[in-house]
Specification:
By secondary structure, the protein is of the alpha+beta class. It has 13 helices and eleven strands. It is about 45% helix and about 10% strand. Strand 5 and strand 6 form a beta hairpin. The protein is globular, with a radius of gyration of 26 Å.
């Protein structure tokens, strides 16, 4: 929640903003609020912001604090009215008013839901446990199973469940490259990506089990794999070949098996009526392939095709047996910062202590030269993991960000931007 990336804002940024704001107030008869927002949000602080979603957030936050209504009476910065413009006349009254603020700021002052406190506490706890886990001894000092026995049992279990790599030639023969069906190419590419991971997993598990028995030398790479297995963490050798994920090893393996099952069902039964977006190694290729199918079917340029986003909350993965005529049905998204109201068919405030909710099935419908709606929707960013931040890969796509999706709402878009509402293809467990 909040910033996608941690930025090293400095006191110098604050001092410069204060000086410029004072100059704007003293030297101009009409306060140039737009100029102040640009100076603070695009230059002083914004000059350090590299993520476009963070830039959208910082400008949205400034809109709440730098506007003509601020100089009015009793202007409130939060819905509850706990944070508002004080009716103070001198420095002492201002200080006395500031002292009435709670020591720990409420999430609402930042525009966040009260659940943000829970998320923040959880993240700090996970970081603490990771540190404690990294400091635990590597030798067994008591009774019970030895460290090597635990690793061997876990590695044997993972190896037994780890599927064989896909037969690429067989897949390519069954789903050959077709000008009118880009999904065949998408499927083959997904199999190739998963194979790279499965081959590394099977080889390192086999070698690791042999090394534990003294049959081969325990190299630094194998030691790193076995240490990670003991700590219930995904080994770096696997993570470097895998899709982005924050899950611990036990949940990560189960998730991998679900993904492989999704691909196997596609191979055996043909393209599914509903695509499980979480099962794709590289979902951007799938989305581009869907647009390409529509463009080639109608003999138009793919650059002129955009998405219509239709939330079908009466359909589910189980009861949908036929695909749409154009586009695709997708499921598997999780919503953070808000929930879907199945009665009003739009975004609604999260329930207390409900951090994540399932998002309904969505029909991604291609449309030519589409004009995006100017109101009634929230441009919701969709990510692969809860980290939100990502790197720009060699394909030109982010390693984490997937796309913006228009979600119906009766509130202003700025409300949900402050709430940091986003969709995710996978959670931490």
């Amino acid at each position: 929640l909040g910033w996608n990336i941690r930025y090293d804002f400095t006191d110098g940024d604050l001092t410069m903003c204060q000086r410029q704001i004072k100059m704007m107030i003293d030297d101009y008869e009409v306060i140039p609020y737009q100029v102040i927002r640009v100076l603070c949000g695009e230059i002083n602080y914004g000059g350090r912001v590299t993520d476009d979603k963070d830039r959208r957030l910082i400008n949205n936050l400034l809109d709440n604090y730098v506007n003509a209504d601020v100089i009015g009476d009793e202007y409130s910065f939060s819905p509850s009215g706990a944070y508002k413009v004080p009716a103070a006349q001198n420095n002492v009254e201002f200080v006395d008013y500031v002292k009435t603020f709670p020591m720990v700021p409420n999430p609402e002052v930042f525009g966040l839901h009260e659940n943000a406190d829970i998320t923040c506490d959880q993240n700090e706890t996970y970081a603490l446990f990771e540190t404690v886990l990294s400091l635990q001894p590597r030798v067994n000092s008591g009774g019970g199973l030895s460290r090597e026995d635990v690793i061997e049992a876990s590695a044997s279990d993972i190896f037994a469940r780890c599927p064989e790599p896909f037969d690429i030639d067989q897949v390519a023969h069954k789903y050959p490259t077709d000008y009118n069906q880009s999904m065949n190419t998408v499927l083959t590419q997904e199999c190739i990506r998963y194979n790279a991971l499965l081959i590394v997993m099977r080889r390192s598990l086999q070698e690791g089990l042999k090394a534990l028995k003294g049959l081969v030398v325990m190299s630094p790479e194998l030691e790193a794999v076995t240490n990670s297995i003991f700590d219930n963490q995904v080994p770096e050798a696997w993570a470097s070949k895998a899709y982005p994920s924050l899950k611990p090893l036990s949940s990560w393996v189960l998730d991998l098996l679900e993904r492989i099952k999704f691909i196997n069902d596609w191979i055996d039964k043909g393209p599914p009526p509903v695509y499980w977006i979480s099962g794709f190694f590289f979902p951007q290729a799938f989305l581009t392939g869907t647009l390409q199918n529509y463009a080639r079917k109608n003999k138009i340029a793919i650059d002129t095709v955009q998405w219509n986003f239709n939330v079908l909350d009466t359909k589910t993965f189980a009861n949908t047996t036929e695909p749409p005529e154009d586009g695709c049905y997708v499921s598997g998204y999780f919503l953070e910062g808000a929930r879907w109201d199945y009665d009003a068919h739009q975004l609604a405030e999260s329930r207390p202590k409900e951090l994540y909710t399932d998002f309904p099935l969505m029909w991604l419908e291609p449309a030519r030269n589409r004009e995006p709606p100017k109101e009634g929707v929230y441009n919701c960013p969709a990510y692969k993991t809860l980290t939100r931040a990502g790197l720009l890969s060699t394909t030109g796509h982010s390693t984490n960000f997937v796309m913006y999706m228009e979600v119906p709402t009766d509130k202003s878009e700025s409300h949900w931007i402050n709430r940091s509402v986003a969709l995710f293809t996978a959670l931490m467990f």
